């Protein structure tokens, strides 16, 4: 027994769609814990910004960023299966991508040098929102919502809660990323 | 030679095999397979049994803590059969064989 060309084409489309959905769900499962780590990093870092003088912010963020980047690379590796070592997976791509975003932050801060502290506090939220939105458009739709939420929350904090901006970013940004991580993990 | 595999060609079994093939030999948990294929528990279970009887998949049941876990993996025979079936579909689309 044979099948028609239309039926065969439809079956191939089904296979490609299923494989795509499988990749997407696997991506969410990997990205969830990474987002939760960055949520904790944001919560600690921004809380410290609200409590410590400006000159000590760098001392807080440097180790936090190193921890965040290291965790990102490690969590991007595929899980161990049947006693075999974890595979590199997307780890190096995500690591290089994160370093590129970090370099972008440093470059733009250096060029524009904000004269007040509020733009320096809110800027990472805006860039993170943009990056997540782009990831959502290109690969994983749920990131579209997460990116938009981070972007809007950063703007809301800047315009409506400026006296408590650092704590706003710690609670809403950090807490939001932790919740977003849980949402992705359950996909 | 590429040939139609009627057992795999059933729509849900085709999705199951496509999802497992995309895992490159790593097992998938039943709940994840259900989310990927958008099937019901009963339907998925019954088609997995058919694929297991054909030797195309292996089903392993264990416990994580106190929670039962069912994992499904594609066997080498299943991988070979799936590739043969996909080759057949491509040949039909390209007009090499079929009705």
Distance between the termini of chain B: 17 Å
* Count of individual helical segments of chain A: 6
Number of separate helices of chain B? 5
Give the DSSP E fraction of chain A (strand runs of 2 or more residues). Answer: under 5%
CATH topology of chain B: Arc Repressor Mutant, subunit A
- Which structural class do you get from the secondary structure elements of chain A? mainly alpha
Sheet with the most strands of chain B? Answer: 3 strands, antiparallel
Characterise this structure.
The complex is a heterodimer of chains A (187) and B (99). In chain A, helix 1 runs antiparallel to helix 6 and helix 4 (117-138) packs antiparallel against helix 5 (142-160). The longest helix of chain A is centred in the N-terminal third of the chain and has 47 residues, at 5-51. Residues 81-86 of chain A have low confidence and may be disordered. Chain A has one domain (17-78, 89-185). Chain A has 187 residues and is mostly helical. Chain A contains six helices and no strands. Chain A is elongated. Chain A has helices at residues 5-51, 57-76, 91-112, 117-138, 142-160, 165-185. In chain A, 81% of the residues lie in helices and 0% in strands. Chain B has 99 residues and is of the alpha+beta class. Chain B has a single domain (6-93), classed as Winged helix-like DNA-binding domain superfamily/Winged helix DNA-binding domain (Arc Repressor Mutant, subunit A). Helix content of chain B is 55%, strand content 18%. Chain B has a three-stranded antiparallel beta sheet with strand order 1-3-2. In chain B, strand 2 (57-64) and strand 3 (67-74) form a beta hairpin. The longest helix of chain B has 18 residues, at 76-93. The two termini of chain B are 17 Å apart. The relative contact order of chain B is 0.21. Chain A binds chain B through residues 1-5, 7-9, 11-12, 14-15, 18-19, 21-23, 25, 29, 78, 81, 187, and chain B through 4, 6, 9, 11, 14-15, 18-19, 21-23, 26-28, 32, 35-37, 86, 88-90, 92-93, 95, 97-99.
């Amino acid at each position: 027994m044979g099948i028609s060309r239309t039926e065969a084409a439809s079956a191939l489309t089904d296979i490609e769609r299923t494989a795509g959905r499988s990749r997407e769900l696997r991506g969410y499962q990997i990205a969830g814990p990474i987002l939760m780590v960055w949520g904790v990093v944001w919560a600690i870092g921004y809380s410290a910004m609200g409590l410590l003088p400006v000159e000590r912010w760098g001392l807080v963020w440097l180790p936090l960023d190193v921890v965040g980047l290291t965790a990102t690379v490690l969590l991007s590796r595929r899980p161990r299966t049947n006693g075999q070592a974890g595979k590199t997976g997307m780890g190096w791509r995500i690591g290089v991508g994160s370093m590129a975003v970090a370099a972008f932050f440093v470059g733009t801060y250096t060029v524009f040098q904000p004269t007040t502290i509020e733009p320096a506090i809110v800027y990472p939220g805006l860039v993170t929102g943009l990056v997540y939105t782009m990831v959502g458009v290109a690969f994983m739709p749920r990131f579209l919502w997460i990116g938009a939420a981070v972007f809007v929350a950063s703007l809301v904090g800047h315009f409506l809660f400026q006296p408590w901006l650092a704590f706003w970013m710690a609670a809403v940004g950090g807490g939001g990323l932790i919740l977003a991580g849980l949402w992705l993990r359950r996909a | 030679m590429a040939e139609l595999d009627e057992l795999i060609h059933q729509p849900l079994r085709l999705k199951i095999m496509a999802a497992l093939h995309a895992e490159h030999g790593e097992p998938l948990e039943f709940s994840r397979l259900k989310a990927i294929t958008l099937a019901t528990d009963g339907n998925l279970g019954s088609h997995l049994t058919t694929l297991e009887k054909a030797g195309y998949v292996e089903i392993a049941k264990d416990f994580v803590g106190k929670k039962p876990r069912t994992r499904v993996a594609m066997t080498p025979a299943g991988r070979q059969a799936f590739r043969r079936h996909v080759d057949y579909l491509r040949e039909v689309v390209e007009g090499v064989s079929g009705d």
